Amino acid sequence: MSETMTSSTIPAQQPVSSYASLPFVAPRHRPRKGQLPRNFWSVKASGDYEIDCETGEAYALLFLAAEAEANSGTMLEGVVSDMPRDADFTGLELGFITMIGFAAQAGAGRAREVSAYWARCEAERKAAAAKGRAK
Question: Under DSSP, is residue 127 helix (H, G, I), strand (E, B) or coil?
């Protein structure tokens, strides 16, 4: 894990070469059955809630930059599944989720476009299959 970052101490679009280079991603030394060999949320709270929220926001901005560069699906599910639950939830998680939420709001129109595209592709696939059966 790297030193504490805040949203004011990193550039919003800092280049990230891969998910593995994110400061909150680390190897998982003994993955249990069903776990990936990488822990996508390897963090330690500072104990200062405000700083932890800012650090979580900074991590989200880095994650979003990595997502923009990725040529694959999102790794958000990996991050969220490795986050703690209930009482162990800290400002790190709150800051991260809040910033991801703002990004989702900003990109809601684009998400609807992608969903509509997927629906068209599925309809075309079904039409082609039906046409193939009709021959």
Answer: helix
